[in-house]
Design brief:
19 helices, 482 residues, Rossmann fold, N-(1-d-carboxylethyl)-l-norvaline Dehydrogenase, domain 2, alpha/beta, 4 domains, binds 3-hydroxybutanoyl-coenzyme A, five-stranded mixed beta sheet, eight-stranded mixed beta sheet
């Protein structure tokens, strides 16, 4: 299957990025937009992105001209008649896409392949809108398309095998890795990523922690390239909202119901980077800088001695009736507070990785102790993440259900462990795939974390996936990748 000329319909952030990827790989590209204004915006995306690469010394001016020279921009879909492949990247509205596919079917030569970059809408429905359903596939790129190395190639029950193979080979020519999947809402990446992002919005809405603290916890604690709110702003809140809606429609899992906060921001026109403001982009409310007067600190729980030494080295005194009592551990602490003579002094501390300390504040914690605990973490070089005293605090509450979802996805037969791991690393820049992360944290720790979340929230999806449970029971430390 020879792809030399490709069309891209819709030149928003994703479409323009996809056009750039094709042009960089030496293909001729016809970019189509609805009107002159949208076309000018699309041209702007292409010009800025390639100019940035030149500024960074990653592209010569000459090569940039070559790349841009391969892209023809037009407002006429009829110009796609010679294209070997057309990738659609218009807004995620099924009716628009269906009518576009019917249109493209009439315009494009019979051998052309029609692809959708949809994040979550059914590819099968789009295929059925054409007279060539066997030549319709999903070709799902990740934002920013020129950077992220994954393409999910989505086949339906009627896709011709040769088409899947040809499109996958083309993705390889673009320098991308391919995961081939069947047509389910969210495919692999969005099915695992978006519920986590939605959950983060839920934690923010419930006041478990602030936006910046949740972002910092996931970036510095879990080692992800971006915090959930930074990533939501990159993806676009409207896109995220639509994906959640599509996931919910398919799964009826209440965790997939779009967060009301997301709905509110979208309705207010705060869509993230593309509109200048989303979760971020407001006038920052700086943390009030308060200095605690705490002089004495007591550390109890797992690993207390090592931390107490760090405070002693920093000049703090230990005392039984200390100004602040830090209880180390990974579970809520309020029951321990209730047993103290001065319950207001107790704060939970959960270390996440080398850099982050979640600081759990109970309903009994005094303001002074809360401020002191935060300051004390900074004194010993950790980033404090103040949060409510809830199961999983922030990082485990967000990470463990995501890991569980990955196990369930594998168990359902939808994707292999290696495909799921590769997809999350290449599509989202995660340092490790979910199965690698599970093995690194330890299967029992994740299973127990999930049990604690389930016990607190009674959310059926938090119950450990049977495969995870069984591996722990059997004493296995790793998944079978054979
Ligand atoms: N266009 C082109 N290139 C870009 C770019 C853009 N919009 N943004 C960044 N880059 C390039 C930079 O030029 C730089 O390239 P260089 O190394 O050749 O100089 C490289 O990417 C790294 O950029 P920066 O140094 O400016 O920034 P960071 O190191 O902070 O990386 C990031 C930025 C690549 C976006 C990184 O934070 C990341 O990987 N984030 C995760 C993004 C993610 O998860 N994407 C998937 C979202 S889900 C999705 O898209 C599916 C959809 O259906 C919703």
């Amino acid at each position: 299957m020879a792809f030399e000329m490709v069309g891209v319909v819709g030149l928003g952030t994703m479409g323009a990025g996809i056009a750039e990827v094709f042009a960089r790989a030496g293909l001729r590209v016809i970019g189509v937009e609805a009107d002159a204004e949208a076309l000018a915006r699309g041209r702007g995306h292409l010009e800025r992105s390639t100019a940035r690469a030149v500024d960074k010394g990653r592209l010569s001016g000459e090569r940039r001209e070559e790349i841009l020279g391969r892209v023809t921009l037009t407002t006429s879909r009829a110009d796609l008649r010679e294209a070997d492949l057309v990738v659609e990247a218009i807004p995620e509205v099924l009716d628009y896409k269906r009518s576009l596919f019917a249109d493209l079917d009439g315009i494009c030569k019979p051998a052309a392949v029609l692809a959708t970059n949809t994040s979550s809408l059914p590819v099968t429905t789009l295929a059925a809108a054409t007279g060539r359903p066997g030549r319709v596939v999903g070709m799902h790129f990740f934002n920013p398309a020129p950077v992220m190395r994954l393409v999910e190639v989505v086949g339906t029950v009627v896709t011709e095998p040769g088409v899947l193979a040809g499109v996958s080979e083309l993705a390889g020519r673009l320098g991308k890795s391919v995961v081939t999947v069947k047509d389910r809402a969210g495919f692999v990446v969005n099915r695992l990523l978006l519920p986590y992002l939605n959950h983060a919005a839920g934690l923010l809405e419930q006041g478990v922690a602030t936006r910046d603290d949740i972002d910092a916890a996931m970036r510095l604690g879990a080692g992800l390239p971006m915090g959930p709110f930074e990533l939501l702003d990159l993806i676009g809140l409207d896109t995220a909202y639509e994906i959640m809606g599509a996931l919910f429609d398919e799964t009826r899992d209440r965790r997939h119901a779009p967060s009301p906060l997301l709905r509110e921001l979208v309705a207010a026109g705060l869509l993230g980077r593309k509109s200048g403001r989303g979760f971020h982009g407001d006038t920052a409310t700086p943390h009030r800088l308060e200095k605690s007067g705490a002089q004495t600190v007591k550390v109890i729980g797992e690993g207390a001695e090592a931390m107490a030494r760090r405070f002693a080295d920093a000049g703090f005194k230990a005392a039984d009736d200390a100004d602040v009592v830090l209880r180390l551990g990974e579970r809520p602490v309020v029951e321990h507070a209730a047993r103290l003579a001065r319950p207001g002094t107790l704060v939970g501390v959960h270390l996440v990785g080398e850099r982050v300390a979640e600081v759990a504040l109970t309903v009994l914690t005094s303001h002074e102790a809360a401020v002191a605990a935060r300051d004390l973490m900074k004194v010993i070089g950790l980033t404090p993440v103040p949060c409510k005293d809830r199961a999983g605090f922030v990082v485990d509450a967000l990470l463990h259900p995501y890991l569980n979802d990955a196990v369930r996805m594998h168990e359902s037969g939808y994707a292999s462990i290696s495909d799921i791991d590769a997809a999350m690393k290449l599509g989202c820049g995660y340092p490790a795939g979910p199965f690698e992360t599970l093995e690194e944290i330890g299967l029992p720790a994740v299973r127990d974390g999930l049990r604690a979340l389930y016990a607190e929230f009674r959310e059926p999806a938090y119950a450990p996936a049977p495969l995870l449970d069984q591996l722990v029971t059997a004493g296995a430390a790793t998944f079978d990748r054979a």
